[in-house]
Amino acid sequence: MRLDPFFKARRIAVIGASRERGKVGSVILKQLKNKKAYPVNPHAKRILGLKAYASVKEIPHKIDLAIIATRAQTVPKILQECQEKNITHAIIVSAGFKEIGNELLQKELSEAIRKTNITVLGPNCLGVFDAHNRLDTLFLPEDRLKRPKPGGISFLSQSGALGSAVLDLAAYKGYGFAKFISYGNAENVTASDILEFLAKDKDTKVICAYIEGIKDGKAFLKSAKKCKKPIIALKGGITKAGSSAAQSHTGALAGKKEIYYGAFKQAGIIIAHNLEEVFIFASIFSTIKTKPRGKRVQIITNGGGYGIVTADAIENRGLALAKPGSAIKSLKKEMPEGVVAKNPFDLLGDATNERYDKAIKAAMKDKNNDAIVVVILPQTPRIDLSIKKTIIRASRKKEKPIVAVITGSEYSMSLRRALEKEKIPCFEYPEKAILALSAYLRS
Amino acid sequence: MRLDPFFKARRIAVIGASRERGKVGSVILKQLKNKKAYPVNPHAKRILGLKAYASVKEIPHKIDLAIIATRAQTVPKILQECQEKNITHAIIVSAGFKEIGNELLQKELSEAIRKTNITVLGPNCLGVFDAHNRLDTLFLPEDRLKRPKPGGISFLSQSGALGSAVLDLAAYKGYGFAKFISYGNAENVTASDILEFLAKDKDTKVICAYIEGIKDGKAFLKSAKKCKKPIIALKGGITKAGSSAAQSHTGALAGKKEIYYGAFKQAGIIIAHNLEEVFIFASIFSTIKTKPRGKRVQIITNGGGYGIVTADAIENRGLALAKPGSAIKSLKKEMPEGVVAKNPFDLLGDATNERYDKAIKAAMKDKNNDAIVVVILPQTPRIDLSIKKTIIRASRKKEKPIVAVITGSEYSMSLRRALEKEKIPCFEYPEKAILALSAYLRS
Q1: Contacts with B309 from chain A: Cβ below 8 Å
Q2: Is the pTM of this model over 0.90?
Q3: What structural domains and CATH numbers belong to chain A?
Q4: What is the DSSP letter of A52?
Q5: N or C end of chain A: which has fewer CB within 10 A?
Q6: In chain A, whose CA is at the least distance from the CA of B22?
Q7: CB-CB contact of A295 with A320 (8 Å)
């Protein structure tokens, strides 16, 4: 199944394009204006300055992709017209099928897809967003839903609204995206088809998925097993309460927790327990440069309390507090009184960039740890933003993974952004850093 | 023990005031310049434009509070001078006592406190920050550490660095603070003294504490039991790994998890498992207007997937998904096709403000629920910011608690800020809202 036309289409027909500002068919057309878009609407001559066509068949060019945003009842017939126009790919945005109990219409649609042999995404979906080439079929305007910057995270979501909120949040938090695919009722293109496609996609480094029920469960797990990229999945409807809700949402029958999680683990899928975990895991998997050889973590900090809660998190998440070896211990004579070369390695509130530099270099050399968590409270007066150089230098050596914890407001955020730009995993709270590291180690 | 002079002092001596920009004794003096501050330094004539004194005894005014930021060795003698000047309260910022193993000096200090009868906060602490009257003894400049806006949260922290990072984060996230107290080694004023003081403080609505080891454990628990305000505590060093780290930090012996948590529960203290939980719990306890009568939660949403993960969180956190009663069920005829008056009550992606208004009003009337979680994805085109009116109106009735989940970037944040201004608990992720609600219900 070829899915690249969904992302590489040059000429796109928007069937159900609308002149009414804010309407689905209007927003989609607006987003596609930088591409070659052809509005289809029998009641309009021009839409957003473009010539409108009464039917897709009247467009005098080859069309690579049709986006259908008309009333649900009209969709099967429109698919027929698309076939007559030799269109091979369509995104059906329209809702009103099995997700609201209209099984009959869903069946009719299924029949139309089979007959026309068109590759269909949806129905009841948002379609796609490609952060690299900016192909964007989302009917939510940018003043409402910010689009994330280009990066390595791809996200597939059964739920359109959840997916769109995720995109908006990702933009807000600065995560870089490759492709976003909202596949809705998955009548034709399924989660496993998308998974296989993303496994080969050069922009995609990490695959995230929100799943309610998997129709093609076995195929999905098979695709996941084959996939060499990390897959992070959040399963909605994992409880009894959530499962009955899921049933009336996408019409998908959600299964038991144990069955899902067991199958996910077997297929090497990383289980996120909530939306935030999806981001946390995606963040570390898309940035970390070096796989740690073991689970012994060395903490370096300028805040005693932060060192302690980091140590607590390490034990709680099943990692181990490294026992400092000779490289760290021998630093004692180079450090001022009160700095104890232990773990956590507490550089104290008057820590300087230089003190951090020495400690990080020693920890990199030390044979008794596998990963280094550098906790920086940039509030203290004797360090400044040039501390980033030390961390970037150490990280580039790719000998051991370095994860940073940076807590605070504007000043701290500027340090965080500088490190994130260099793809160094950064977290706001120690617990999140350790959660991420432990997920990475278990994968 | 009177602690109000720490917050209400009018004339303050800064012993160890410095002319060197960025130095502890310089920043403290600068922060206090809007108060009547008297620098003490035998090697300077003027500091930051103020006349400097060689000794505290030479200041020709009554001094309400001394802040001591000199070398640790000099502190006992300085306390003696403070007594001769009839100073009753002192904050010892200086470090270098038992926290670095200098038990002898700590003992000497203890002796000096006993002899002089001065009420002492510290040593090895940051002192205090009062967001309402802006008394601020923190030696971290505002371009590094933003101060939070005035509000109802007070925070006591054994660890200065952790406490300061918490302040900076609180400022960043928009939480309102009453008083912040960093008490360090607690040689004289202890955590339980501070707790008793905050229990009576009119600005304090919620008390948060970061604790490593409690010296006066029994007194602390007794004070907590008496306190009518919610107390949220994060215990650092709760694991074996963290506990050994805590020992070398504030010299406090951390105890076993079961013992601490058991005692906390008995004393009615809300246990936070990490820093973020402190904020989440403080947020709901300082805003919620109505205590729910039970644990049955009704979800209203415009995102099916968000409804499902909210339902999952409800079951995972031991709350119950309410069974909609007649008030909600009777809405069916007023809603468009596809909207099912169930729980989650999914108003669909084309939900309007009006649809939310009807649903919230019905849920408020419905006898089958105790609390309402309103999930809003403001990305969808047919709702806008005036939806806040509906939520504020319902919340003001104080019949049932309303908790909002608002996910997204700028546009969403403007809605969130509008609701937070009205003290409606708002969260970014469904799981956080449910975690907060469940903590509130258990309290």
Answers
A1: 162, 234, 236, 242, 274-275
A2: yes
A3: 1-124 (3.40.50.720), 125-286 (3.40.50.261), 296-442 (3.40.50.261)
A4: P
A5: N
A6: A381
A7: yes
